[in-house]
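In this section we walk through a basic example: taking a raw amino acid sequence and producing a predicted 3D structure, encoded as discrete structure tokens. The instruction is simple. Fold the sequence below.
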Amino acid sequence: MPANSKKANAATGSNQGIGEEHEPIRIAYVDDDLELTRLVSGALEEEGWEVLVENDGESGLELILVEQPDLIILDVMMPGLTGWEICKYLRSKPDWNTTPILMLTGIGERMNALTAPLYGADAYLDKPFDIDDVVETVRQLLAQARASE
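The resulting token sequence is shown next.
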């Protein structure tokens, strides 16, 4: 099965055939703030999404490449690879051009507005943020991905 087949099926939330079990939406979340990852992943899991968490850039990129998530959330400033480096790398690969990427950063709204599109992120939220804004942004990104299939 090509990498995008699984991602497309999970992103749409549709079952391919009668009797097939529905796969949950899978979200990779990479952030070195352990408390924040607990809060955000908990809120996303309450929505019924599966959240895979890593706390540094290298482990996060490996998780993304192996697990093929439907959506990616990245912190910018992390040990090892930054969120920007991960985003730029993924966008350089054809299989990752349509996977939504959300940046969560504390670098400031103006800097985010300039850098998020430059590296290929689909959306960004400034820290501190309201957890409801994260959930709503994820919903919107998943809906956009579904509509563009």
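Looking at the output, two observations stand out. Strands lie at 26-30, 50-54, 71-75, 101-105, 123-126. The two ends are 17 Å apart (CA to CA). In the next section we compare this with other chains.
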